[in-house]
């Protein structure tokens, strides 16, 4: 691992982590600025969803940017895939996939105890956020069909090396987000009577923190390797 | 075969030992009679007559007659100007009393009469009420030859068998379907007593309100009607010509929770009103202060002019003493403070008391009191004596309050010897059974967990004797007799033996170099299940998680179902996709999703179950629909004649509910309803018996000769048939017992379990490396989660007030503790009992060929008793053992009696119920296994 130190990959990963952390920090600053938890769950009033959306979009652009470097070494299949990216069919597929995922997340929220109709707006915001954190980056990167294949195929052959790096990061992003949102519910039954214990707030914050932590975890060995390289350079 | 039989026997022994351990723990944690050990006889019984050399005048009784008008479950907001107009308007003082837990009748009566706090475990004895009270107001009245008359709840007679002069008790105070009959009798007695007028104290205990609450809830329209009846009875007393100089106290023994039950710790249950009535109301100052229920005892003792009962630790209620002269009031304050100080001396020791604050307050108060004696007798109203008077009074009151608080805190006493033995036994047992399940392949030969080793037994016997004798000598364990001491030897020896076993096994597992190969776990432990199970165990440590335990179960159970469903879906799609290489992916996905539609339907059903209590509007339709569905589900286990009777029985269940007016039914006049009710129930029982007989007929000996060839083909059919029949019958019975809107839970439970098992099988078969045991582990753990979810859907909780007593009295005309206990248990724990039975039946019946897998060795069905049942037992025992350990850590927690203790009772009872079910099932295995 250390012997074949991939500079591009490491740069990509480090930028990615910085972007995630920046997103979280902006979200936190925003929350601190508003000083009111109740609006977190409302669709029109909360800026969390747009902030996360922009963050994820930037990550995908980052991946595309790094992907350009290896444009010369693509296989035929990969080229075909690239060319088909902006066709209406793919765009429509991607949107449908994200919409279905939002519905699925809303269903999961309700199964796990969210009120069925009373808090539909909060449930919608939460599931939108979850979709943004888990499915959207992959869909933006590969299109709807590609995302499905990545999810259900053993090893799709159209994925380039750079995309593979990005997917690895997205995977931990998503896992952390899901686990964080799931674990956020732990405060719900406690009798502390705080205003941030209300339904979507702990889950939203849990999802944000979880995805950040997942990102950091995904990059631990890269960070470690960076440190090693840095130390050896310094010694030499 | 022998080896597998030993699994069941072994598990049964372990469960028995565990139950012994919990019993010992409970005895140690809630000592049933903690005040026996105290040397109460060192207290002076007589009232003090001198103070610093001055003679004191003992006040005489301030009223000729006292009436204690006790309405069971009268909560603080029940009597108001609309519900009880006369009682509300004519009350001289309206106070409110704080009731201690447990809020059930027997401990409350003890508190009112003796003035001491009751033990938590009294709640369990509430039903048995065997213990008699040693000393109380009534004992003292008897010594003074006062006439005490009583009418009402039978519990009083058990507590005071010989203290009353006249008794008119209801015969069956636990028969909750009696709303009016008993109360009418009490009022009749009241009328005759009012004419006689020779009594000093008359106690009336009305039970109707409590019964209405239990059966119909606190919103029932009958409650208003009942309160009106009570109001009329009070008016009768107040307006009677014989009542000249009297004190009437209207109060409740405990409140009523919002669901209509009681036993918990909500404000509605722990707050009761105390209304006072007298012929000269003017002397009472208006006050809405809150006192403790135990304060009533010393106050009453002083008003009755008798000695305060020795165990009393209450303060005085100054509002009730205002009719006394100032000198007598002073005496009252002095006497109670004096009494409490003596108690404190006995409890904490003379030196500690002398060093305390309250001793100085007491000294100050007595000096002032002495100075005041002369002016008070002369009727001196000067300012100085007024100030002295108030000063002394305040000092006396705060002495009493301080000591009362300290004494009630110090009443908590644990018997650490019993706790230690109980804990050792439960922990060792649960670890032992856990190890034996985890290493089930090695358990016999390498770990030797199943075999009884004589040498080790002798060794542990020796250690046990040494421990027992040592702890007795060091006064660590106190037993009242030699026999008890010897009996205690058994659990100690068992605990030592099991601990040695566990230690040896752990050593062997942790130190593999001693063996040629590493000991590996015999059963797979999937991470998500373990995580959820661990979370469930860890949340036991928080009081709010215990109060809202249902949330944990809904969350974790649904998470697991969802997780397994999604994982299976993904694996299926991936598998189907391998050949097609990424083409038509959305078609494959939608096909696989459609294959799994049922589990999503189940998830939606589970969401609906959360809102069950809101479906009251359509409950008739719902009940018909769910009975039909239930019948269709049960049709799978029953042959045609059984199914016919089964359907007929369900029809009768609907008729029964219809006759009771809970669902829509033909309009019938009242007398017709009464006439039809009994035949309907008799017919139901006949149908149940017929289904049972039809099912058992196949297993009868003479049938076996004729059907030999059939049986050879299906060796397990007899056992399976019997278990099916048992399951069907007990489910039919539960359909009768369940509340109307809960009946839908029964078919849903069966559907959910069925689909969960199918899902687990599908999950197991799609795994890369198939293992039968993985499927078993998934099924067992999922059964536990589903069972608990349905247990809470039904409306159960960890508070004792949600136990539904009504089903115990279906078809009963009197109180029979065994039948009522059986019905209530079956109703409360039906989800857990039937889930376990269903799991066993399913495992016996299951045939993996249906999902495309050949039968493997050990055969799938045999796992029912070799793996599934022990694993289930281990998973039931483990949290209970952990919770007992937690209890010891939390023994000084603020919520120990209100939140944690009811939960420990529930937990122990859950283990007990599981034990009974397990015992029955393994009996069937033993009896009918040899035919296989």
List the helices and strands and how they pair.
The complex is a heterodimer of chains A (236) and B (932).
Chain A: H1 7-34, H2 48-69, H3 76-83, H4 88-111, H5 120-134, H6 136-152, H7 161-184, H8 200-218, H9 220-235
Helix pairs in contact in A: 1-2, 1-7, 1-8, 2-5, 2-6, 2-7, 4-5, 4-6, 5-8, 7-8
Chain B: H1 2-29, E1 50-51, E2 54-55, E3 65-71, H2 85-89, E4 93-98, H3 105-114, H4 122-128, H5 137-143, E5 148-152, H6 155-159, E6 166-169, H7 181-196, E7 201-206, H8 208-216, H9 221-238, E8 246-252, H10 267-270, E9 271-278, E10 290-292, H11 296-304, H12 326-348, H13 350-355, H14 357-378, H15 383-410, H16 416-438, H17 454-473, H18 482-510, H19 527-538, H20 543-547, H21 549-580, H22 585-595, H23 597-610, H24 619-634, H25 640-659, H26 670-697, H27 701-706, H28 708-713, H29 717-737, H30 745-766, H31 772-793, H32 817-828, H33 830-845, H34 863-889, H35 896-929
Parallel strand pairs in B: 3-7, 3-8, 4-10, 5-6, 5-7
Antiparallel strand pairs in B: 1-2, 4-9, 8-9
Helix pairs in contact in B: 1-16, 1-34, 1-35, 8-9, 12-14, 12-15, 14-15, 16-18, 16-34, 17-18, 19-21, 21-22, 21-23, 21-30, 21-31, 23-30, 24-25, 24-30, 25-26, 26-29, 29-33, 29-35, 30-31, 30-33, 31-33, 31-34, 33-34, 33-35, 34-35
GO biological process, one term (chain A): GPI anchor biosynthetic process
GO cellular component, one term (chain A): endoplasmic reticulum membrane
Keywords (chain A): Endoplasmic reticulum, GPI-anchor biosynthesis, Membrane, Transmembrane, Transmembrane helix
């Amino acid at each position: 691992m250390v012997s074949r130190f991939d500079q591009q990959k490491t740069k990509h990963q480090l930028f990615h982590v910085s972007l995630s952390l920046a997103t979280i920090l902006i979200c936190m600053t925003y929350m601190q600025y508003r000083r009111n938890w109740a609006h977190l769950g409302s669709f029109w009033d909360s800026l969390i969803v747009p902030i996360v959306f922009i963050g994820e979009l930037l990550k995908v652009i980052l991946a595309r940017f790094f992907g350009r470097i290896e444009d010369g070494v693509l296989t035929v299949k990969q080229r075909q895939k690239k060319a088909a990216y902006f066709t209406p069919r793919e765009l429509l597929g991607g949107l449908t996939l994200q919409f279905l995922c939002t519905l699925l997340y809303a269903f999961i929220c309700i199964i796990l105890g969210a009120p069925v109709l009373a808090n539909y707006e909060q449930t919608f915001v939460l599931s939108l956020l979850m979709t943004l954190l888990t499915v959207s980056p992959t869909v933006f990167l590969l299109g709807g069909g590609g995302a499905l294949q990545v999810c259900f195929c053993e090893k799709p052959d159209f994925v380039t090396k750079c995309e593979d790096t990005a997917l690895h990061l997205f995977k931990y992003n998503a896992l952390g987000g899901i686990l964080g949102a799931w674990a956020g519910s732990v405060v719900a039954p406690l009798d502390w009577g705080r205003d941030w214990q209300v339904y979507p707030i702990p889950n939203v914050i849990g999802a944000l923190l979880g995805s950040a932590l997942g990102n950091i975890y995904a990059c631990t060995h890269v960070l470690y390797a960076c440190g090693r390289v840095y130390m050896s350079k310094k010694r030499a | 075969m022998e080896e597998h039989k030993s699994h069941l026997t072994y598990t049964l022994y372990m469960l028995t030992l565990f139950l012994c351990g919990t019993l010992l723990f409970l005895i140690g944690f809630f000592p049933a009679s903690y005040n026996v050990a105290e040397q109460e006889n060192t207290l002076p019984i007589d009232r003090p007559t001198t103070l610093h050399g001055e003679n004191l005048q003992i006040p005489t009784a301030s009223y000729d007659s006292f009436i204690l008008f006790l309405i069971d479950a009268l909560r603080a907001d029940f009597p108001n100007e609309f519900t009880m107009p006369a009682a509300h308007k004519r009350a001289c003082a309206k106070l409110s009393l704080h009731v201690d837990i447990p809020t059930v009748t027997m401990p409350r009566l003890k508190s009112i009469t003796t003035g001491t706090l009751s033990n938590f475990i009294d709640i369990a004895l509430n039903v048995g009420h065997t213990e008699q009270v040693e000393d109380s107001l009534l004992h003292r009245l008897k010594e003074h030859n006062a006439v005490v008359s009583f009418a009402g709840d039978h519990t009083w007679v058990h507590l005071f068998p010989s203290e009353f002069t006249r008794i008119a008790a209801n015969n069956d105070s636990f028969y909750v379907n009696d709303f009016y009959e008993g109360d009418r009798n009490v009022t009749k007695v009241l009328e005759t007593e009012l004419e006689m007028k020779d009594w000093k104290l008359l106690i009336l205990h009305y039970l109707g309100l409590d019964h209405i609450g239990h059966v119909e809830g606190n919103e029932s329209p009958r409650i208003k009607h009942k309160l009106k009846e009570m109001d009329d009875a009070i008016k009768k007393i107040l307006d009677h010509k014989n009542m000249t100089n009297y004190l009437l106290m209207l109060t409740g023994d405990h409140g009523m929770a919002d669901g209509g039950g009681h036993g918990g710790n909500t404000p509605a249950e722990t707050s009761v009103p105390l209304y006072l009535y007298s012929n000269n109301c003017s002397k009472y100052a208006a006050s809405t202060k809150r006192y403790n229920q135990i304060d009533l005892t010393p106050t009453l003792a002083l008003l009755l002019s008798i000695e305060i009962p020795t165990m009393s630790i209450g303060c005085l209620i100054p509002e009730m003493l205002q009719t006394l002269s100032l000198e007598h009031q002073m005496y009252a304050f002095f006497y109670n403070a004096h009494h409490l100080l003596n108690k404190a001396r006995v409890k904490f020791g003379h030196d500690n008391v002398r060093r305390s604050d309250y001793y100085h307050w007491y000294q100050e108060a007595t000096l002032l009191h002495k100075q005041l004696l002369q002016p008070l007798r002369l009727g001196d109203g000067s300012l100085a004596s007024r100030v002295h008077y108030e000063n002394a009074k305040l000092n006396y009151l705060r002495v009493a309050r301080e000591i009362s608080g300290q004494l009630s805190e110090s009443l908590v006493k644990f018997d650490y010897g019993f706790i230690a033995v109980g804990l050792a036994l439960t922990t060792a047992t649960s670890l032992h059974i856990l190890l034996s399940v985890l290493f089930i392949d090695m358990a016999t030969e390498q770990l030797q967990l199943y075999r009884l080793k004589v040498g080790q037994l002798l060794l542990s016997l020796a250690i046990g004797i040494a421990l027992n004798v040592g702890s007795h000598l060091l006064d660590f364990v106190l037993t009242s007799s030699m026999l008890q001491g010897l009996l205690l030897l058994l659990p100690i020896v068992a605990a030592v033996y099991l601990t040695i076993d566990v230690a040896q096994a752990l050593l062997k597992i942790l130190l593999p170099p001693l063996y040629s190969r590493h000991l590996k776990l015999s059963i797979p432990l999937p991470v998500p299940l373990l995580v959820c199970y661990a979370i469930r165990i860890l949340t036991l440590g928080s009081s709010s998680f215990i109060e809202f335990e249902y949330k944990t179960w809904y969350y974790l159970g649904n998470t697991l179902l969802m997780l397994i469903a999604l994982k299976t879906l993904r694996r299926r799609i991936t598998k189907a996709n391998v050949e097609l290489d990424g083409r038509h992916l959305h078609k494959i996905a939608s096909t696989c999703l459609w294959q799994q539609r049922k589990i999503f339907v189940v998830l939606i059903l589970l969401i609906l179950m959360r809102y069950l209590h809101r479906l009251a509007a359509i409950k008739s339709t719902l009940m018909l629909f769910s009975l039909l569905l239930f019948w269709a589900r049960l049709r799978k286990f029953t042959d045609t004649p059984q199914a016919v009777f089964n359907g007929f029985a369900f029809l009768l269940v609907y008729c029964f509910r219809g006759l009771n007016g809970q669902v829509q039914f033909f309009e019938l006049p009242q007398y017709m309803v009464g006439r039809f009710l009994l035949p309907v129930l008799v017919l139901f029982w006949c149908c149940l018996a017929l289904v049972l007989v039809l099912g058992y007929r196949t297993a009868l000996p003479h049938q076996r000769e004729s059907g030999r060839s059939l049986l050879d083909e299906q060796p397990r059919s007899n056992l399976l048939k019997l278990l099916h029949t048992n399951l069907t019958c007990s489910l039919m019975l539960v359909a009768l017992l369940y509340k109307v809107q809960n009946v839908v839970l029964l078919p849903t439970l069966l559907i959910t379990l069925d689909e969960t098992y199918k899902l687990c099988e599908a999950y197991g078969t799609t795994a890369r490396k198939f293992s039968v045991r993985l499927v078993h582990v998934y099924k067992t753990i999922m059964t536990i989660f589903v069972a608990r979810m349905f247990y809470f859907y039904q409306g159960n909780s960890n508070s004792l007030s949600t136990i539904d007593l009504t089903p115990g009295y279906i078809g009963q005309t009197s109180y029979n503790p065994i039948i009522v206990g059986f019905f209530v248990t079956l109703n409360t724990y039906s989800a857990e009992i039937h889930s376990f039975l269903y799991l066993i039946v399913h495992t016996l019946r299951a045939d993996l060929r249906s999902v495309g897998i050949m039968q493997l060795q050990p055969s799938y069905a045999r796992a029912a008793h070799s793996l599934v049942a022990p694993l289930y037992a281990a998973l039931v025992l483990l949290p209970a053992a952990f919770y007992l350990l937690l209890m010891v850590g939390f023994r000084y927690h603020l919520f120990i009696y209100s939140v944690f203790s009811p939960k420990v009772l529930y937990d122990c009872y859950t283990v007990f119920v599981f034990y009974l079910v397990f015992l029955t099932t393994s009996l069937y295995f033993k009896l009918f296994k040899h035919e296989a």
